[in-house]
Amino acid sequence: MKKSGMVQFTIQSQIKLFNCNVIYTYIIRQLLPLPQLQKKMPIDYGVWDNIEVSDDEDDTHPHIEKGSLFRWRHQARLERMAETKLELQELYVKKAQATKLMCEIGSVLNDSTDECGEKMIAEKHCQEKAIRECDERISELEKITRSWNVDTIGRDGFSKTYVNKASSSKLTEDDEIKLAADL
After folding, report:
1. pTM score
2. 70-91: per-residue pLDDT in tens?
3. Phi, psi for residue 117 in degrees, rounded to 5
4. SS3 assignment, position 183
5. In a domain, 180, yes or no
6. Axis-axis angle for helices 114-146, 66-111 (nearest 10)
7. Residue 162: strand, helix, or coil
8. For 55-64, how does the pLDDT look when each residue is reduced to its tens digit (9 = 90+)?
9. Cdc37 N-terminal domain: which residues (predicted)?
10. How far is 139 from 145, CA to CA, in rounded Å?
């Protein structure tokens, strides 16, 4: 009987201790918000969030040659990159044209009458809407172009390579004497 009483006592004390820990943790979390409890990482790992390198290249179809499949995927990726770059350029041109037209409308509005003014104001609002749409689409495309893939993950450190010419190892006696005298 003494054993069961002792076991019951230890279980009850463990439950009380557990409850105290839970309450203590709850109070600490109420006093200190969770972000302050977590230590910040000394390295920003967010750089690798947008990497488009996948393990899908290990999965190949049994009837398609592996090299051909990789070339097709690479070619498709290059075509997508070229299309997004072209679309970005078109959007920048469209945005510049809309901005220019909006400025012209603003200058005409200052000198116009009421009848033309209403049409110009409507046109100005239309151009503002077009500029906002261009900005939204540009931000989407820039987010896509910022993602890394096999083609964009690395960059060249140097654009040129210099190779030194081998020096002649045989010196004449006169050159050796001059070299010794210089030292």
Report:
1. 0.53
2. 888 889 989 999 999 999 999 9
3. -65, -40
4. coil
5. no
6. 160
7. coil
8. 555 667 788 8
9. 42-161
10. 10
Identify the pLDDT of residue 94. Answer: 93
Is 92 found in the same domain as 148? yes
Look up residue 142 and give its amino acid: E
Segments of the chain scoring below 70 in pLDDT: 1-41, 52-59, 112-115, 168-169
| 56 domain residue, yes or no | no
- b/e burial code for range 109-125 (CB count within 10 A of at least 16 → b): eeeeeeeeeeebeeebe
Q: Which domain holds residue 9?
A: 2-39
Query: Number of H helices and number of E strands within the chain?
Result: 5, 0
pLDDT of res. 168: 67
Give CA–CA dist 87/137, Å, rounded: 10
- In this prediction, residue 137 carries a pLDDT of 94
To 10 degrees, the CA torsion angle through 87, 93, 96, 100? -140
Tokens coding 180: 């010794």
pLDDT, position 9: 47
Whole-angstrom distance, CA of residue 138 vs CA of residue 90: 10
* Residues 53, 150: Cα–Cα separation, whole Å: 6
